[in-house]
Amino acid sequence: MPALAPASGLGILWEKKGLLLTGSSVLFGTLIATGLFRFPPCMLRQVTGIPCPTCGGLHAIQALKSGHPLTALWFNPLLVMALAAALLYMPYALGVLYANFPRLRLPSSIGSERRLRSGLLLLLGLNWLWLVFRP
Fold first, then answer.
1. Which of 57, 76, 105, 128 fits 53 for a cystine, CB–CB 3.0-4.6 Å?
2. Does pLDDT of 17 surpass 80?
3. pTM listed for this prediction
4. How far apart are CA 6 and CA 14, in angstroms?
5. Distance of alpha carbon 122 from alpha carbon 79, whole angstroms
6. Are 5 and 103 in contact (CB under 8 A)?
7. What are 105-134's pLDDT values in tens digits?
8. Is the sign of the CA dihedral 78, 83, 88, 90 positive or negative?
């Protein structure tokens, strides 16, 4: 089971960075969903016909805004899962920074960091395969 440790020093800095990144992502997603910001078309798809790993992200955000989470998952499953994780992370980070909640520390080793990186790359690859071969 992960150990709980009080927030201090470097840990608080990471929580602030994570909260800033999460908050700006939510704000950016809101700007996109409301139509106040538009991305240019995907260059990789225009040149090669193959979607990039983030293709479908705007459609997924718009589907979430419209209350269609399954449609959003169809457009870009990794983005939807990342947004869900970010929304779960925000209250935790706020609690650590401002309510002195204990900071969750996961045991770290070279092997666990390598497995985490490998798992994230696997998720990215599976998401890209879904985008390339989806029906």
1. 128
2. no
3. 0.67
4. 13
5. 14
6. yes
7. 777 777 788 888 899 999 999 999 999 998
8. positive
